[in-house]
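Structure, all two chains, one model.
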Amino acid sequence: MKDISQQRGLTRRDLLSRGMAAGASFVVGAGFVASTDAAWALETKALRPETMATLIQMARDIYPHDHVGDEYYAIAVKGYDSAEAAETVEAGIAALNAAARGKGHADYLSTGWERDRVDILRGMEDSAFFQQVRGGLVTGLYNQKAVWPLFGYEGESYSKGGYIDRGFDDITWL
Amino acid sequence: MAAPFDLTDDSVIVVIGTGAGGGVLSNELAQRGVSVVALEAGGRYLPEDYVNDEWESFGQLAWLDPRTTSGDWRVARDFSGLPAWIVKAVGGTTTHWAGASLRFQDHEWKAASNYGPVQGASLLDWPIDGAEMAPWYDKAEKKLGVTQTNGMPALPGCNNYKVFEAGAKKLGYKDVHTGRMAINAQEYDGRMACQQTGFCFQGCKWGAKWSAAYTDIPRGEATGNLEVREKAHVARILHDDSGKVTGVEYFDADGNLQMQRARAVCVAGNSFESPRLLLNSASSMFPDGLANSSGQVGRNYMRHMTGSVYGVFEEPVRMWRGTTMAGIIQDEARHDPSRGFVGGYELETLALGLPFMAAFLDPGGWGREFTTALDAYENMAGMWIVGEDMPQETNRVTLNHAVKDQYGLPVANVHFDDHPNDIAMRNHAYERGAAVYDAVGATRTFPTPPYPSTHNLGTNRMSENPRDGVVNKWGQTHDIANLFVSDGSQFTTGAAENPTLTIVALAMRQADHIAGELSRGNL
């Protein structure tokens, strides 16, 4: 794979600035997407790395939770990095970038304001690709057990004896 | 030990389905010495098998065979292949139900008479009433161990209930309590007390909630008179030249077609599968399906007027801790047309875990309007609305010959349009539900649309006149004397109450009737 980072403004510096404006994931090089703080990295197999970075940003823009790190969004969409899905996803992200250009932006990932990216997404929300990504995120993101504590959700309780002695009626502010 | 019966044994009663209707009926018949073969499409799962995980449990228990949908209800758009959230397992949806066990109000048995004509609605009076059903409700409440009946204590209120109760009282609601629940507040009938675990919808791991899976079914089997065949999917009910039912064809666990002969057949597959089976059993003698001379099989599908209201507060609620359905406001359950609709509704607390909240809060929703709601998940309280919906002839289950299930059988298409009365009632309930939370300081409320239906009613309805429905007051089909319907599909109207207690009471009454008819030589 050729180094696309030089061609499309995907230098580390570009990505860092973009990461601050638009999220936190960026392409580190051929086949890799990583967080700006290097806390995690994802090696892509079938997708182009910038496609995966765009997909992660798209996932965040569909279900934005500012206290949820990009790694959870990356996990939620990593299933698309497969030989079977790649063609559809590449085409979908290409359409997303085309829609961004149609609204005067260079591409989706470099569109700085969330409201502008959401505007792009609104224009394609009836598309099969958008609905596939959105629908997949409902379980892909919110059914990650590691995400639950970020929302305060405690999950399984039977093994702990339920809440009979652990605060089922501990509300005090009423 | 469970009695094995021969396929050629034509003395047995075949019961199709083992939930609140079929499971109870099977046991009650077995207790009376009647030989029963119960055919259950699902497998057997017991408390040790249930999982405290919403999606994993859904995959374990839910009925996921293909179905199709049509109509203006939002479920047809958001969950087009999943019109119902019900269970495919021994014990049926009694594994999943929340446990709310409410009697019909007397006036609800005679909705047509008491509400008067409602344009577009096919309202009809039940051929039975509250006085007829009272002793059977007594028996059903004892069987299920319903709280606040028969001297049983109430469940304690969890956080979600406390928010709900405080708001209700501020609005002046009087009939507010932790419900009449088939969940043990103390040890009862060999089952332990509720441990406030949550996950009532995923099967109670303590067995504190009544389910036929671990009460009626094993007790029936212990008599030696009941054989439950799991993963047995009934394809067709057979009849002879005289029009009497003779047995059923079913696919066994290995996918092989079997034929079980029967003295009588009782259909209890819930309100999609029961009419589907009658329609799929069409023959040259009954070209429109069995028991369908009225043309009413599949019609008048009701799902209750439902919806939810969630409220967000400044401080944590942690609604998932404790009983899922933990309390009720009954003040709006009355019939009071001054509100702009006939019939009434109950408000009942409800909690969903984060995964299901994401799926059901606003299906299809996205962006910050949606995600800021979930950001406040810990500070959220929730309630479910359940009210009487209007029967309509055009709301119906039909066969979709273009879509086949894994056995090659046409699937059920479920068509539903809201009646204007349903919409008026839902809007009223959304306003009242939001007011409950606003009264205790909600910063935001959500009028959440109906989930895939758990209360599926009316598709083989009970009628005095054979022209108006499918079964008589015993659940016996008008057309075929040895064919019965034993589930919620026999409901003439839906009333405002969660239906399980009434399904159980009707099944107990029907068992008594069938056993009596057998001993009198009439069946």
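The CA atoms of residues 29 and 515 of chain B lie 7 Å apart.
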